[in-house]
Amino acid sequence: MVFSKVLIDWYLKNKRELPWRKTSDPYHIWLSEIMLQQTRIEQGLPYYQRFISAFPSVFDLAAAPQEKVLKLWQGLGYYSRARNLHESAKYVAEELNGVFPGSYKELKELKGVGDYTAAAIASICYNEPVAVVDGNVYRVLSRFFDIETPINSTAGIKEFKALASELLDEKDPPSFNQALMEFGALQCKPRNPLCETCPLSSGCLALQKNKIKDLPVKLKKTKVIKRYFNYLVVYSQENKTLLQQRTGKGIWNGLYEFPLIETEKPVSEGAFPSEEKINEILGVQELSLQLHNKKPVVHKLSHQHIYTHFWWVKAESVGEEGIPVKNVKDYPVPVLIANFLEETALETYSL
């Protein structure tokens, strides 16, 4: 059995019809690969279509304000991808006259483009014989060859890259790479893989040894920390509210949120954070507070779980920084805030 031939034959019969598979334009391939990092195709496809519609070329993306890019990205998560996407678009448009780098090595110089993305673009767009290794590839190779080296270890990354490179069909790198990834997504799935109809089953060591559920091996994740957020949803007599833009290297950089007071422990309605902190945000004035949700909204990120309470704050004024409540929906916000806005229909809400 020739591994690559079986895979490519399977791919040609079973591949999904996706818009970025109908082109070798590096802008389209780059955009799809960045979006699909840590994202399922079903979730990423509508975002890809909206981006292509809003930004038909790398010049359009480069010229867009970052807030518009983040707004279109809203809900897709891992927002550093969107910021890096925008920075790389500006670099390609302004420094390279809109022409994407033409090799794996050069592509890796783009912000936000790592080994996997560079390999995908180089092989699909330029037919460069460089292997792609993503989560699907790790799973297929670890099972077929019964490899127990942790896939998120330095040794594992090196071993699987070498194996994928050895197996690569150098005559048809784009088909092989896409076939291997698609095979992992549709056939050799994380749960309930379709072993009974698998064209590679006769040579699969994990299947022979009843180890399908044990592979791939992954080192334990970093300890998850708990954080406690209290958002002040301010409502003034002028029908205005407050939003603040997050900055720095933490989560959601560049997105907007209601004024935030973070505490070490959860707070109850009768034990709200100090009046001093509220005055720092809103100034000294007569206020009324009302807890929106007694049970915290839990928002889970890869290394932290955020327990959130929303507090309605009725204020006389929010000052010059206030924005009309009806305009809140125009700002890019974390999905945690977006869900709250959808649930409460803020523009029609009254205290």
Automatic annotation (TrEMBL):
<dbReference type="InterPro" id="IPR004035">
    <property type="entry name" value="Endouclease-III_FeS-bd_BS"/>
</dbReference>
<dbReference type="Pfam" id="PF14815">
    <property type="entry name" value="NUDIX_4"/>
</dbReference>
<dbReference type="GO" id="GO:0006298">
    <property type="term" value="P:mismatch repair"/>
</dbReference>
<dbReference type="InterPro" id="IPR003265">
    <property type="entry name" value="HhH-GPD_domain"/>
</dbReference>
<dbReference type="InterPro" id="IPR000445">
    <property type="entry name" value="HhH_motif"/>
</dbReference>
<dbReference type="GO" id="GO:0006284">
    <property type="term" value="P:base-excision repair"/>
</dbReference>
<dbReference type="GO" id="GO:0035485">
    <property type="term" value="F:adenine/guanine mispair binding"/>
</dbReference>
<dbReference type="InterPro" id="IPR044298">
    <property type="entry name" value="MIG/MutY"/>
</dbReference>
<keyword id="KW-0234">DNA repair</keyword>
<dbReference type="InterPro" id="IPR029119">
    <property type="entry name" value="MutY_C"/>
</dbReference>
<dbReference type="GO" id="GO:0000701">
    <property type="term" value="F:purine-specific mismatch base pair DNA N-glycosylase activity"/>
</dbReference>
<dbReference type="GO" id="GO:0034039">
    <property type="term" value="F:8-oxo-7,8-dihydroguanine DNA N-glycosylase activity"/>
</dbReference>
<dbReference type="Pfam" id="PF00730">
    <property type="entry name" value="HhH-GPD"/>
</dbReference>
<dbReference type="Pfam" id="PF10576">
    <property type="entry name" value="EndIII_4Fe-2S"/>
</dbReference>
<keyword id="KW-0378">Hydrolase</keyword>
<dbReference type="InterPro" id="IPR023170">
    <property type="entry name" value="HhH_base_excis_C"/>
</dbReference>
<feature type="domain" description="HhH-GPD">
    <location>
        <begin position="35"/>
        <end position="186"/>
    </location>
</feature>
<keyword id="KW-0004">4Fe-4S</keyword>
<dbReference type="InterPro" id="IPR003651">
    <property type="entry name" value="Endonuclease3_FeS-loop_motif"/>
</dbReference>
<dbReference type="GO" id="GO:0051539">
    <property type="term" value="F:4 iron, 4 sulfur cluster binding"/>
</dbReference>
<dbReference type="InterPro" id="IPR015797">
    <property type="entry name" value="NUDIX_hydrolase-like_dom_sf"/>
</dbReference>
<keyword id="KW-0326">Glycosidase</keyword>
<dbReference type="InterPro" id="IPR005760">
    <property type="entry name" value="A/G_AdeGlyc_MutY"/>
</dbReference>
<keyword id="KW-0479">Metal-binding</keyword>
<dbReference type="InterPro" id="IPR011257">
    <property type="entry name" value="DNA_glycosylase"/>
</dbReference>
<keyword id="KW-0227">DNA damage</keyword>
<protein>
    <recommendedName>
        <fullName>Adenine DNA glycosylase</fullName>
        <ecNumber>3.2.2.31</ecNumber>
    </recommendedName>
</protein>
<dbReference type="GO" id="GO:0046872">
    <property type="term" value="F:metal ion binding"/>
</dbReference>
<dbReference type="Pfam" id="PF00633">
    <property type="entry name" value="HHH"/>
</dbReference>
<dbReference type="GO" id="GO:0032357">
    <property type="term" value="F:oxidized purine DNA binding"/>
</dbReference>
<keyword id="KW-0408">Iron</keyword>
<comment type="function">
    <text>Adenine glycosylase active on G-A mispairs. MutY also corrects error-prone DNA synthesis past GO lesions which are due to the oxidatively damaged form of guanine: 7,8-dihydro-8-oxoguanine (8-oxo-dGTP).</text>
</comment>
<keyword id="KW-0411">Iron-sulfur</keyword>
<comment type="similarity">
    <text>Belongs to the Nth/MutY family.</text>
</comment>
